[in-house]
Hints:
By secondary structure, the chain is an alpha/beta fold. It is built from 10 helices and 14 strands.
Amino acid sequence: MELIVFDLDGTLLNSKSEVSEHTRETLQQLSQRGVAYTVATGRTLHAARDLLAGHGFTLPHIYKNGVVIWQPDSDQYSHSNLLTNLEIQQVVEAFMEQSVTPFIFTVEPGNRHAVYHPPMQTDAERRLAEMFVRDRGLPVLPVARMAADADITNISALGSRAAIERVEELVRCEDHLVAYAGTAIEGDGLHWVDIHHSAASKGGAVAQLKSDLGVSRVICFGDSDNDLSMFALADESYAPSNAKDAVKAAATAVIGHHDEDGISEFLRERFNL
């Protein structure tokens, strides 16, 4: 059994964060041929559920860069690598010292997700919080309301490049944490960072799925640093031409741009669809 694993943003999705018509038809053809595929993304379940609905993603999904695996058949999470309040305390303090507001993502009983934060300090942060509510259906609450035993999936933030890099330096000294960062689509010179447990990675989660599903070969697609761990274990790995240089260098081959249906064009040729 071969398993295809798709990153979403910058890979399977176009720049409008949509599944194009060409990609939609390709996924249907893969399903009809019995080709197995799933997703490994930095998004939460709630931020991806509507995008994936109706496109044949029936196998377990990997969310938050491997922090959790979601089982569609039971609507439950498995293989969680979560954080505690104690583990994130220094990082939250570091953000505040840099005048950057951390957004703390949790998963709570009943698969309920929420986002907690200290007082927001910039218009960009306030717009981000509004997006969490409007587009992702997440409650955004003051950090004082977060339970002491909350299960924390990750911490995200927007800030200047210098501020984000200082927080990244601190994270590198924490054995139990890992950070991914990059230029924010919000513009204005902003950078983003996402921090989660070091035991969590897309590669680790894909290895778990490979074992659980009895997969013999893995074919993966991705464009950013958080995809490198699954590239390392895949039998074939492909980067769209818009991918970061390090990802293209690690790939089996570089294929078409994500805004030009590069992944679905490749799949049609690869599987004779």
